[in-house]
Every structure is written in structure tokens, then in C-alpha cells.
Amino acid sequence: MSEMTPYVLVLYYSRSGATATMAQQIAAGVESIAGIQARLRTVPPVSTTCEAVDPEIPEQGAVYVDLDDLRHCSALAIGSPTRFGNMAAPLKYFIDSTSSLWINGALIDKPACAFTSTSSLHGGQESTLLTMLVPLLHHGMVYAGVPYSETTLLETHTGGTPYGTSHLAGPRSDRSVDEHERSLCLAQGKRIARLALALRAMRQEAL
Questions:
Q1: Range with the lowest mean pLDDT among 41-45, 53-57, 194-198?
Q2: How far apart are CA 31 and CA 55, in angstroms?
Q3: Where are the beta strands (DSSP E) in 88-184?
Q4: What is the rounded (10 degree) CA torsion for 145, 182, 71, 50?
Q5: pLDDT of 163 strictly over 80
Q6: pLDDT in tens, 136-146
Q7: What span, in angstroms and rounded, lies between the C-alpha atoms of 72 and 51?
Q8: Rounded to whole angstroms, how far apart are CA atoms 203 and 3?
Q9: Is 50 exceeded by the pLDDT of residue 174?
Q10: Mean pLDDT (whole number) for 45-73
Q11: CA 14/CA 45 separation, integer angstroms
Q12: What is the Cα–Cα distance from 132 to 121, expressed in whole angstroms?
């Protein structure tokens, strides 16, 4: 990937695989738009102990994110399973480490969106998306949900929401991401990519 090529950072944490699948679908939506690419990244788990035991590079899946991935992105798509109506601790831990980007205004006027997965239909999909939005607004990002022009929002019986895409994983977290949920992920990826290109041009004109 050229350093000059704009990219959407698709950043996620996943335990059972559903959030990772959603991230891949969002990335596919991004990559379907000419002139921009997707950069898939994840975060390591956190521990109650102080000793670091995980390898620096995960054995499978996306590599771990660093601050430069976020600093240089043209847009951010952030995803997490719900933990009591909020994002999972590993993702929150990374977000809490981004103060230097906030001080420098590195993310101001860049578009962002969120996605999530829950075990039950009313298990915190919308509250997780909304609480993930809060630190992004502190960074000055421009939040983009899923508009109702995506008619799949009116057809889905599981995941959806205008605040971002979501997935119903089931009580054993073994329910696959279905056709409606995949469609919304693709649509969200396409939208964040188009906004990234438009707002990137606006930022360049302001220089």
C-alpha cells in the first residue's frame, strides 16, 4: 500500500469471531470505492496481571494497531462486542491511550463509524454504539451512522440500527452474520469511504 493512498482504519476487538467478520465486510465495502483502501487492525486482550504474555504479532487475524495507524487514517470504523452496554475493555484501553492525538488534533474532521455484536437482541447494541461515539466526538471526528436509505434497516430482524451496524450472535455466540447484517456492513463501509474522500479533500483545501 502506498503511503499516499488514503485508508479507512477498520479497528476491532473480537472474541468469538463475529465482530471480526463484520470488520472484514466493512473493509470490503471500503475497498469497493475507488481511490481508498481499508486497513484492518485489532487490539490485544488486557489482563488483570501486570505481566505481558501475548506475542507482539497475533497468531491469526489482523495485526495489532498502533497510534500511527490511527494518526494517518482518513477515517475510522471501530467495532466491539458489547460488555454491559459498552465497548470491551481491550478496545477502551487503546482508545484511552490516544491523548497525544487529541492534543495535536490529529483526528479532527475525519469521519468515523461504529459496529457491534451482542448475544441477545436487547443486550446493548445501541448503547454500545453510542458510548463508542463519545471518545470520537472528543477527538473532533465526524460521526456517520447508517441512513434509512439503506432499506435493509427496515427488513432486518436481528442487527441494524441507524447508529451503526450490529449483529445478533445468540446466547452461545455461534450465530453467523446473516445476509441483512452483511449488507449493512458493506453499506457502512462504502459510506465511510465516500465520506473519507470528501472530507479529506475539504481538509486539504483548508491548508
A1: 53-57
A2: 29
A3: 111-118, 142-143, 165-168
A4: 110
A5: yes
A6: 999 999 999 99
A7: 30
A8: 18
A9: yes
A10: 82
A11: 9
A12: 18
Q: 123-149 burial by CB neighbour count: b if 16+ within 10 A, else e?
A: bbbbbbbbbbbebbeebebbbbbbeee
Q: Do 111 and 75 touch, CB atoms closer than 8 A?
A: yes
Task: Pick the closest to residue 12 from 121, 146, 165 (CA basis).
Answer: 165
pLDDT of residue 1: 43
- CA separation for the pair 170, 183 (Å, rounded): 19
- Residue in 113, 27, 116 with CA at minimum distance from that of residue 80: 116
Give the pLDDT mean for 111-116.
98
Across the chain, what does the average pLDDT equal?
Answer: 92
CA torsion, points 88, 180, 16, 110, in degrees to nearest 10?
A: -40
- Say what angle helices 179-206 and 18-31 make with each other, to 10 degrees: 50
* Distance separating alpha carbons of residues 201 and 117, to the nearest angstrom: 33
